[in-house]
């Protein structure tokens, strides 16, 4: 068992409890479904490498988020150079036929992810952490190593951009 | 901003749907878990060699094959999650100070047939000889038959001899070895990153570059294991099988063997 002696954090337990969170975060930060396994693997390998640095007095998820964010940012930069391979919108795969509510939720999530993908990655990170994960601004600032005021300003812009993106996408769907 | 200000109602409804995203499938979780275990094990040749040299290799490899050994395997990895060279040694020391993982005992250090470990422990605990020896002489424990060497081809200059005291390890020129290992590690890391990101050509090119520059390098075993994984992953099944056979012939007791076998087992031809 890989355990950090100083705070008792077990990597295995962390993996089991936070795997879904890491995958969800990667999706929100623009990682395609087809690449999710590889990117999640990369995140956890990096987490393992830095596990001894984790301060268990701090919330775990924001700390994990910073690794997912870094990995997704690299991925997005690489993806720009091979965009032709990833133009398939695999988020639509989640909209498989099913009960009406399930389909509605899937479509809503699809819309959210598409709107998020239009945001600058730094602002998207703050938006995801606050609006979806419910993290407090100080935790976001610490996790992303940015000043508290920057968190507020990025969030303000991100909320506007997200709203605009959703409206535009909805309009496009209706037309 | 401790209390978040809600967005318009319809947007909140969208966000609620995303917030309630279901948990990932157990299948995906198991798949990634296996990959993480393998990757960490492959990324820790020093630790792997340590265990092999101390007679724990068989148990570790068997545990890896069972797929039940995340904790066990990671305990190996945590001991020396090393990027290579002296920097890796620093990381190792740092990790070791935090994690109660399986560490090579003093008597087992003498049995390590891996230059990487020499770098770490010799540098830390043994005086550097004023005049570098012509050969790397590694004393081993009293039962040599139980101390398999993992990568004979990768350490052609190593001569294994018996010696009574662990502290009598004679180190090679540290700076030169560290520089070489760092260069090797750099190439291997490029290959690994390319593999993770799905760049088959990039991975194989980096591995070939390592082979040309360091045909019997300190990371040759890791390189050859990665090559099998790259070939398998990108659908070159026949080549993957051939490379795997060669790997097992060259490194019959390698800790990377389960990862190599798993890669070949998963290989599917890509038309």
| Main interface: chain pair and counts | A-B, 52 and 44 residues
CATH architectural type of the largest domain in chain A: Orthogonal Bundle
Order of helices and strands of chain B: HHHHHHHHEEHHHHH
Say what the CATH topology of the largest domain in chain A is.
Rna Polymerase Sigma Factor, Chain: A
Q: Total number of β-strand segments of chain B?
A: 2
Shape of chain B: elongated
User: Are there runs of chain A of 5+ residues with pLDDT below 50, and where?
Assistant: 1-7, 83-97
The number of helical segments of chain A is 7
Average predicted local confidence, pLDDT of chain B: 60
Total strand segments of chain A: 0
Beta-strand proportion of chain A: under 5%
Strands ordered across the widest β-sheet of chain B: 1-2
Cα distance, first to last residue of chain B?
54 Å
> Kindly, what is the distance between the CA atoms of the first and last residues of chain A, rounded to a whole number of angstroms?
56 Å
Q: Work out the helicity level of chain A.
A: 55-70%
Query: Approximately how much beta-strand content do the residues of chain B carry?
Result: under 5%
Give the SSE order of chain A as H and E letters: HHHHHHH
**Shape field of chain A:** globular
Largest sheet of chain A: none
